[in-house]
């Protein structure tokens, strides 16, 4: 699928994508820099979109690591399956609210998310964040891109520690929340 077709799909589904455009390289770099992927063995991405964050993770992760990418949009999943045919990258066409069904009891080192929590119902948000907290290993982190600093209060309900950084090099400018 071409980039223009992906953008059409993005704008056709603003309620589930929650973004005006895909993440910039600068935002992806800032997000990935919050984790030590060289030691990680199980990584989750929530909201694969066009694969820009996925590519950033793959570029940094250990060759023996496994990456599970959750995406509810089938068109995005099809494009990512073609883009990322590696055996250790699994594109999952399912809600991140079903995370535990795909982990089989395993603990996750890092969860990267670009989910639009401002647009999700309280029930879906609770399922995703509760399962994320439970799934993380003791030194793991949930790393979220968001466009409102106020979401920090939401993440504090689930995680003991939430640190925020900001980048202007994205449209719109964005926060990266690191939750532990």
TrEMBL record:
<dbReference type="InterPro" id="IPR029063">
    <property type="entry name" value="SAM-dependent_MTases_sf"/>
</dbReference>
<dbReference type="InterPro" id="IPR007848">
    <property type="entry name" value="Small_mtfrase_dom"/>
</dbReference>
<feature type="domain" description="Methyltransferase small">
    <location>
        <begin position="22"/>
        <end position="163"/>
    </location>
</feature>
<keyword id="KW-0489">Methyltransferase</keyword>
<dbReference type="Pfam" id="PF05175">
    <property type="entry name" value="MTS"/>
</dbReference>
<dbReference type="GO" id="GO:0032259">
    <property type="term" value="P:methylation"/>
</dbReference>
<keyword id="KW-0808">Transferase</keyword>
<protein>
    <submittedName>
        <fullName>Phospholipid N-methyltransferase</fullName>
    </submittedName>
</protein>
<dbReference type="GO" id="GO:0008168">
    <property type="term" value="F:methyltransferase activity"/>
</dbReference>
<keyword id="KW-0949">S-adenosyl-L-methionine</keyword>
